Amino acid sequence: MPTYQYRCEKCGEMFEHAERLAEHETGHPNCPKCGSEKVQHIPTPFVAKTSRKC
Q1: Cβ–Cβ < 8 Å for 3, 21
Q2: 3-state secondary structure of 40
Q3: Whole-angstrom distance, CA of residue 41 vs CA of residue 28
Q4: Residue 51 parent element (H or E)
Q5: Which of 8, 9, 19, 23 could cross-link to 31 by cystine, CB 3.0-4.6 Å?
């Protein structure tokens, strides 16, 4: 399950939330610090590791 990073627009708290892709498209979690619904998704870099040797 992917982990997404969010930032609360009210208090500035940054937090991570694990959710399914379908959940990510339909809504965002509330801030764990102040409970605000005004949170913004923060894009994070993605690195894929494979076991294939060159």
Answers
A1: no
A2: strand
A3: 8
A4: none
A5: 8
pTM: 0.73
Angle at 36 between CA 33 and CA 38, to 5 degrees: 125
Q: Tokens 């923060």 appear where?
A: 42
* Distance, CA of 34 to CA of 2 (rounded, Å): 24
- Per residue of the chain (54 residues), give pLDDT as tens: 788 999 999 999 999 999 888 887 888 899 999 999 999 999 877 767 777 766
CA distances from 48 to 45, 51, 52 (A): 10, 10, 12
φ/ψ (deg, to 5) at 21: -60, -40
Domains of the chain: 3-42 (2.20.28)
